[in-house]
Amino acid sequence: MNQSDCPEVKVPVPLFFTIGVVGLAVNLLVVVAVMRNRNLHSPMYCFICSLAAFNTIASLAKTWENLMIVFANVGHLEKKGPSETNLDDVMDSLLCMSFVGSIFSFLAIAADRYITIFHALRYHNIMTMRRTKAVLGLIWTTCGVSAVLMVKFFDSKFIMICFVVFFVVSLAIICFLYVYMFMLARLHARKIAALPAGGGGRGRRGGGGMRGALTLTILFGVFLVCWAPFFLHLIIIMVCPANPYCECYRSLFQLHVVLLMSHASIDPAIYAFRSAELRHTFRKMLLCSQWKRCW
Asked: Shortest CA distance to 13 belongs to which of 258, 231, 221?
């Protein structure tokens, strides 16, 4: 209960529902686009497709949860019934799975971009589709198991601490990879510039990798902005649950959830803005009246 002078900020349920439906639709669009267009059947786009699938799961979970709230408010569901509690646990598991999967997807895309930039000549030998599928299988299995464990034992303070520590450590690792990648890329560009004329072919081949790395940086920045307030909320629950100043921050919880849900809708816009191939695929999917002939 909020015991401070700060009133709890309420967000209308229709807004939650709208954001969830939009996130669900646009991320499904990304998944279908990658599956339909053979030009997008590359490791990086497979990882992006995986990220979009995790965003789809998050949007689905929050949309279903909002529907449950609406039904409970009109008396069609019990707010604390056993079946409703179990269903709520499933929704929380899916949300945790989405978060952990997003982190692992960012790590996988970062590793892919690193290989693209600094091992361009060996890229297709290193990042085969067979290895890509194995990495994706490992990511989804790990996320499913960890999500169930997190929700099952989330009442334990130790699990909540592990959840927050995982977020902070993952941020540190990804930030380190980005800084290291761009520092090496800058040094690499200087060496290419110092070569005689005609020796910059490899540098030109790395240009696409740098563009992909920049796209990944934008995606990760949006992820951080959207998820960090929620994790600060969890930290406050553990550190100062009764402090009135902390209570003022906790009164903004529903706004934090809006940010969290908005992340799923923002990512596809970044894909479309940064990738000409995806824009072309979206255009064909949305504007072509005869689906099969468009492909």
From this structure: 258
